[in-house]
Design brief:
The protein is an alpha+beta fold and 249 residues long. The protein folds into two domains: 95 residues; 141 residues, TATA-Binding Protein, CATH 3.30.310.80. The chain is 49% helix and 15% strand. Strands 1, 2, 3, 4, 5 and 6 form a six-stranded antiparallel beta sheet that branches.
Length: 249
């Protein structure tokens, strides 16, 4: 049985495209595992994965022209897989770049801008974090109002104890890394969330308090990134998810 030779263009396409995928994935996990710094990941590895993907895609195009002239050339499946992997890398980078343009460069979001919930138990865990727990100036508050007008204090028609129970139960339902403290006497719940790819850690504080009017309570939430000027909307999304979970309790 005659063995057919697969085009080197096709093999090179999938090989380089696969390398692009590997570099893209490791750019984040490598930082998380301490293999390199954030600057290396964002300045070299992420762009590098995109360059590799473009090369892999280009090689597949070259193979396509070659096969158009010589239909007997083997390797179409490998070249197509190279195209798919290349587009996956390019699409992922493009998606996150586009997302970064959609959100303001702030990383501290709360439902109570005038009197944000404060951290206590989590403060020591953020000792080496570039971002502190100071909410910020009026300009940042105005930016949040404009970007996330829907984030408001949640009012419940239940007594304080019932509200705290619902708040804590909802927090336990969230896919957060851990709940650091839950103190009913002060109405404070603090938790840490860890993002999968780069392993960035964000901190959450929930404040439960009584509200004006008999038998009513209110819940405020604040979510803050430990690193980075912006958060690509992650903190606001986390708060929305949590408040929706409270409503379901």
């Amino acid at each position: 049985m005659e063995q057919k030779n697969i085009s080197k263009w096709a093999l090179a396409s999938i090989g380089i495209a696969f390398l692009g995928v590997l570099v893209l994935i490791l750019s984040g996990y490598g930082y998380q595992w301490g293999w390199w710094g954030l600057g290396t990941a964002f300045t070299w590895l992420l762009p590098g994965s995109g360059v590799l993907a473009l090369i892999g895609f280009s090689l597949a195009i070259v193979f396509g022209f070659l096969r158009w002239k010589k239909p007997e050339v083997e390797g179409a499946k490998w070249a197509m897989l190279g195209v798919v992997l290349s587009l996956a890398v390019i699409g992922t980078i493009g998606y996150w770049f586009n997302e970064a343009q959609q959100y303001p460069p702030i990383h501290d979001i709360t439902t109570d801008i005038e009197n944000p919930p404060t951290f206590q138990a989590i403060v020591p865990l953020r000792a080496e974090a570039p971002n502190d727990t100071t909410y910020g100036d009026q300009e940042k508050a105005d930016t949040q109002r404009e970007a996330y007008p829907d984030l408001q204090t949640l009012y419940l028609d239940v007594e304080y104890a019932g509200a705290f129970e619902r708040a804590l139960k909802a927090a336990k339902q969230m896919p957060w890394e851990k709940i650091v403290t839950a103190d009913e006497s002060t109405g404070r719940i603090e938790a840490v969330d860890k993002l999968a790819w780069f392993g960035f850690k964000d901190d959450v504080v929930i404040r439960v308090d009584t509200a004006e009017g008999g038998g009513k309570s209110k819940i405020d939430v604040r979510s803050v990134s430990r690193i980075g000027r912006g958060d690509i909307g992650v903190n606001a999304h986390r708060i929305r998810q949590y408040l929706e979970e409270v409503k379901r309790q």
